[in-house]
Amino acid sequence: MSQLLEATFWSATVAGGLRLATPLIYASIGETFAQRAGVLNLGLEGYMIIGALTSLYVADPTAAPLGFLVGGLAGMGLALIMVLLSIRLFANQVVVGFGLTILGIGTTGYIFHVTTDVGGRDRQVSLPSEIDIPLLSDIPWLGDAVFGHSWYTWLSLGLVLVAGFVASRTIFGLEVKAVGEDPDAAAAKGVDVLRIRTQATLISGFLGGLGGAALMLGSVGRFQPYLTANRGFIALIVIIMASWSIWGAAVGAFVFGFFEALGFNLNNVFVDVPIEGLNTIPFFVALVILTVSARWARMPRGLGENYVPTV
Amino acid sequence: MTSEPGADPATGTPLSVRGVSRRFGSVQALANVDFTLEAGEIHALVGENGAGKSTLAKIVAGSIRSDSGSMSLFGQPYRPTSRREGAAAGVAHVRQQLSLVRGLTVAQNLQLGRPGAPAIFNAASARAEVERWSDEFSLSVPAETLVDDMPLAVRQQAEILIAVAWGARLLILDEPSSALGPLETKALIALCHRLRSEGTPILYISHRLPELAELADRLTVLRAGRVVVEGADVRAADLREVATLMIGDVSLLEVNRPEIERGTTRLTVTDLSVSSTQEIGCHGLNFEVAGGEILGVVGIAGNGQDSLAKALTGQAKLASGHVVVDGEDISGSARQAIAAGVAHLHEDRSTGLAAAFTVADNATARHVRSGRFTRFGVRLADKIARHAGELVERFQVRPPDPAARASSLSGGNQQKLMAARELEKNPTVLVAHGPTKGLDPEAAKAMRDRCFAAAQAGGAVVVISADLDEVSDLAHRVVVLYRGRVTDAFPIEDMTSERLGAAMAGLTETMEAASG
Ligand SMILES: Nc1ncnc2c1ncn2[C@@H]1O[C@H](COP(=O)(O)OP(=O)(O)OP(=O)(O)O)[C@@H](O)[C@H]1O
Ligand SMILES: [Mg+2]
Fold first, then answer.
1. Which ligand is nearest to the Cα of residue B96, counting in written order?
2. By the CB < 8 Å criterion, does A308 face chain B?
């Protein structure tokens, strides 16, 4: 019990939270773009897991950064199916999205199964070292909690800044919001609704793939079937909690990571409580936040509805 | 686009349309239309609802394509394949169904789709630009308010402002004044005059005769997709001549107010307050309307009209007070309001109708809960279509096709469809917010007659409008709203423009103060 009063317990929890949040940050930022554009992209789990497996199989013989990048491209490839079926051929978004998630989980499990024979031990990558920022990492408490992360985490934080800027300060960001809120009016103003929705969906696929790759290369190091374990769906919850804001999504991902890390760390304190119980903490927190944020959250008006252009 | 030898882009005819046709399914919206917009002119395009005016405007703007025919713009062949191309060629278009994107501010809308806008959105300069144009043309358009939170009249002005700010070489205005009051219309007319003097030709679509007579140099009349009067000079003509050109039968403009017997009080509003993010709301309103009586509510847009309309139809949560219909308190319940027979002609057709649904679904929407068109919860499509067909015939919705999407109807026909839904049965209370907006003279007359008929059948009618002519044609009694309070109330015979002007500007003492 007394551990709870120690600073190191909390700094370790914050650090663990940020590490666990990293894949979520990539995935939820990308999905925020898609949903702001009106595309309910439920294939996110699929993009992540396909990104995870691909990144491993590329990084293993070559190098981690290349694996990371190709993982993103793999997610984007899967998102292309969403673009073709839902955005261009107007198939129901929910159906296609779930289909892609199932497809992603199934095919990665299958490919993994047929390409390894020692339960994956022959397919492993070593985890990255922490990047120490001189002086800053040495600050007591804060240094432990906030600094000393891998480059996947640092990159995700940079991504938040860039994505936040793009969403709120560029014409592309305005166009994304416009086609998600009011596609008819946007089209009347000369915005190419289908093009913007396509771009936003591909961004979501790419970042979803990066999220899976970050999970694989940054914190797990080896594949197992259904490795992503609902992280894609958690990202979907994060977006609602964040009321479709980029900054909010980043904070929400961290909150999730933090409580997940807290569950793990509490497991060392309350050894009698089963880990499964502690693992539900983030979901309870999410429920509370969702209930509270429902008071002000406003989803994009055109979310989930296909836009059929009239000529 | 290749330039013709010798054609000077600055001096060629601004717009020439030759033999343009367009068909939608079985409807020939435009048939072999010739039209010329000359340099420095304001050219009025008029014609009955569904004549094809908006279709022609959209073709010129690049939003839709013609089936055949050709166009040239400032002497150059012009074949836009998208709205973006039309905008890039310098054609600005204020649409009848506004195209401001909800969820964004006016400043953001200004930059969205704007030809040549930089990739980075500069919020400060966009805001400054909106404010500058708003001041320059005496409009009242806020830069940083969400479009959703602005009254229709302000949205309409914002749309005009954006068209002007884009620096158009040619401007199309499709019923730009339909939600505007007299002051705003005056500002719009001044704006058009100024653009014309600066050399921007304007294609101006409207059903409002007085402003056409004041604005237009020439007039083209469409009927059922064909040009029946091409470019008649109206500069020297008087109102009657213009009217004859426009509608043939001038008697349609006359209003015959029937004698209506006054019944007992049907609508009672006590201490009504609504707080609203969208506008000023309303504060402590008290009034009664008897059966057979038509009450006019006037005021500059955004002074509480929306809140009042919502409160009377049960769609607003009241901060205080009661709305009582025939002794039943309907405050805050749209369902109860409908059950009590309250009908509502919404100010904004795009909200008042479900645009993506069919004409039949819209026409019968009031019955959704009645069970009349369902059996064991299953919709009876045949019965719905048959009933809708009758309604559409009765209210002269054109084309009378129950299976068409509501959004495919022309603006005026959407208005008629809304009336068909709301006025199928005689209402106990009719809340009519701009009832004749967008209607051609014949349809406007029919709509006025429907309002009279509702009163004659014993209903209490509340007409809310920015159009003072509409109110003086219909109402027996007028109340003036200013900042959500009633500043004056008088019988229609006592209405003078001075008295109205003072009350609408808030210069009259408030009623509470006046009555002690
Ligand atoms: N997208 C569409 N699909 C089907 N029919 C359409 C479509 N757009 C217009 N029409 C039809 O074309 C005809 C002309 O419509 P248009 O909107 O041009 O009329 P308008 O002259 O502007 O009338 P109003 O005065 O009522 O605005 C109408 O019969 C309308 O129903
Ligand atoms: Mg029209």
1. 2
2. no
pLDDT tens digit string along A24-74? Answer: 999 999 999 999 999 999 999 999 999 999 999 999 888 899 999 999 999
Quote the tokens at residue B103: 């969820």
Instruction: Tell me the chain B residues in contact with residue A185 when contact means C-beta distances shorter than 8 Å.
Output: 98-102
- Domain B13-82+169-176+188-253: give its CATH code: 3.40.50.300
Q: Look up the ipTM and state it.
A: 0.89
Task: Mark yes or no for CB contact B103/A170 under 8 Å.
Answer: no
pLDDT tens for residues A211-270? Answer: 999 999 998 888 888 999 899 999 999 999 899 999 999 999 999 999 988 988 888 888
CA separation for the pair B246, A223 (Å, rounded): 76
β-sheet bridge partners, residue B64: none
Mean pLDDT of B319-337: 94
CB atoms under 10 Å from CB of A197, counted, come to 27
Q: Ligand 1: which residue has its CA nearest to atom 8?
A: B408
The C-alpha atoms of residue B500 and residue B504 are separated, in whole angstroms, by: 6
- Ligand 1 centre to CA of B410 (Å) is 4
Report CA B403 to chain centroid distance, whole Å. 24
| Å between A300 CA and nearest CA of chain B | 8
- Measured CA to CA, the distance from residue A278 to residue A252 in angstroms comes to 19
The two beta strands, B320-325 and B328-329, are antiparallel
Residues 6+ apart with CB under 8 A from A176: A33, A36, A37, A167, A196, A200
Banded pLDDT at B2 (limits 50, 70, 90): very low
Sorting pLDDT into bands at 50, 70 and 90, what band is A133?
low
**B149: confidence class by pLDDT, cuts 50, 70, 90:** confident
Q: What is the CATH number of domain B263-340+475-516?
A: 3.40.50.300
**CA–CA min distance B25, chain A (Å):** 12
What per-residue confidence (pLDDT) applies to B83?
Answer: 94
The C-alpha of B123 sits at a distance from chain A's nearest C-alpha, in angstroms, of 8
Fold of A2-122+142-293: ABC transporter involved in vitamin B12 uptake, BtuC (1.10.3470)
- Closest ligand (CA of B439): 1
**Closest residue, chain B, to A169 (C-alpha):** B121
Asked whether residue B57 carries a pLDDT value surpassing 90, the answer given is yes
Q: Give the domain ranges of chain B.
A: 13-82+169-176+188-253, 91-162, 263-340+475-516
Tell me which chain B residues have a C-beta less than 8 angstroms from the C-beta of A171. Answer: 111-112, 117-121
Alpha-carbon gap, residue B257 to B475, rounded angstroms: 10
- Give the separation between CA A73 and CA A96, rounded to whole angstroms: 19
Ligand 2 mean position, distance from CA B56 (Å): 9
Whether A146 has a pLDDT exceeding 90, the answer reads no
What separation in Å is there between the alpha carbon of B222 and the centre of ligand 1?
12
Q: How big is chain B, counted in residues?
A: 516
Q: Which residues contact A284 (CB under 8 A, 6 or more apart)?
A: none
- The pLDDT value recorded for residue B1 is 42
For every residue of B141-155, DSSP letters joined together read --SSSBGGGS-HHHH
